[in-house]
Specification:
By secondary structure, the chain is α+β, with helices and mostly antiparallel strands. Helices cover 43% and strands 15% of the residues. It has helices at residues 2-6, 24-35, 73-87, 93-105, 111-129; strands at residues 14-17, 39-45, 49-55, 141-144. The chain has a 4-stranded mixed β-sheet, sandwiched between helices. The longest helix is centred in the C-terminal third of the chain and has 19 residues, at 111-129.
Length: 149
């Protein structure tokens, strides 16, 4: 935590939190960015998919998806995605299936999700820098490699 507290983030406008979101460092990083008025992009590898959320410094906190001390971040995130989809009448069946199997298999960590997330991060950062519109959390970006329609 001392490393995060000692970080000088002056001059930084945007940051990417690509941690596993399963420990205190992730929360400390987000709080430090919030204090300094930095917009944070949360990039999450979901195996064959990527989830990204852009958090404004004074916006709805991404930490609402998972509480401190929780050890099942991807399951909590999956439930959030599923509930969001159901609320807006846009179900995401593959996420629901992954949640059902989470306790047995978990979301498989595959490189493809990281590549998708990296591509989205690049695109979002360019849009932010150019003043173009982006989705802010609680809205999000979700991109699976393949999705049956």
């Amino acid at each position: 935590m001392e490393d995060v507290d000692a970080c000088d983030l002056s001059g930084i406008r945007y940051a990417v939190n690509a941690t596993l979101h399963d420990n205190e460092v992730s929360f400390a990083f987000d709080e430090k960015c919030k204090e300094q008025g930095i917009t944070v992009i949360h990039a999450v590898n979901l195996g064959k998919a990527a989830f990204l959320a852009v958090e404004k410094p004074k916006g709805y906190p991404f930490s609402e998806v998972v509480k401190r001390g929780s050890d099942d971040f991807r399951c909590s995130l999956g439930k959030y995605i599923s509930q969001y989809g159901m609320f807006w009448q846009m179900p995401v069946p593959w996420v629901d299936e992954a949640i059902m199997h989470y306790s047995k298999e978990s979301f498989t960590q595959q490189g493809i999700g990281a590549y998708i997330a990296a591509g989205y991060c690049d695109n979002i950062l360019v849009n932010l820098a150019e003043g173009k519109e982006v989705k802010y959390f609680p809205k999000f970006y979700l991109s699976p490699l393949l999705e049956e329609i």
